[in-house]
């Protein structure tokens, strides 16, 4: 594969991660349900006298939350895309198959389960 073709693959990996940000909606405490649209946000905040009285049901508040959360999402996706690119570069440079380049890190929790993080690379050099 030419260097230009590799660059295209790496760039597409980053863009694939960033495309997730297009559909970002602020969560407003509803994260497991996929966030709220503007109309859902206004319905929720207009039904609360406190929020409504202070004007927190405004579309500007929604836009500010969407922008702040959207930026956070962009940063997160840049990190994820960078992991994908680094993994692909290791595969290309060291001629390793995908299964030999894995991202693993486990943090034990108080419940006995493990949280899985994607920050460290572990290479299988046994082959």
What does this structure look like?
The chain is mainly alpha-helical. The chain has one domain (3-95). The protein has four helices and four strands, in the order H-H-H-H-E-E-E-E. A hairpin with a 5-residue loop joins strand 2 and strand 3 (114-116). Helix 1 (3-18) runs antiparallel to helix 4 (59-94). It is elongated, with a radius of gyration of 21 Å.
Distance between the ends: 24 Å
Structural class call reads mainly alpha
Global morphology: elongated
- Topology as H/E string? HHHHEEEE
Question: What topology does this entry show?
Answer:
Blueprint: H1 3-18, H2 38-46, H3 49-53, H4 59-94, E1 101-103, E2 106-108, E3 114-116, E4 121-123
Antiparallel strand pairs: 1-4, 2-3
Protein traits:
single chain, 127 residues, two-stranded antiparallel sheet, two-stranded antiparallel ribbon, disordered C terminus
Task: Provide a compact summary of the structure.
The chain has 127 residues and is mostly helical.
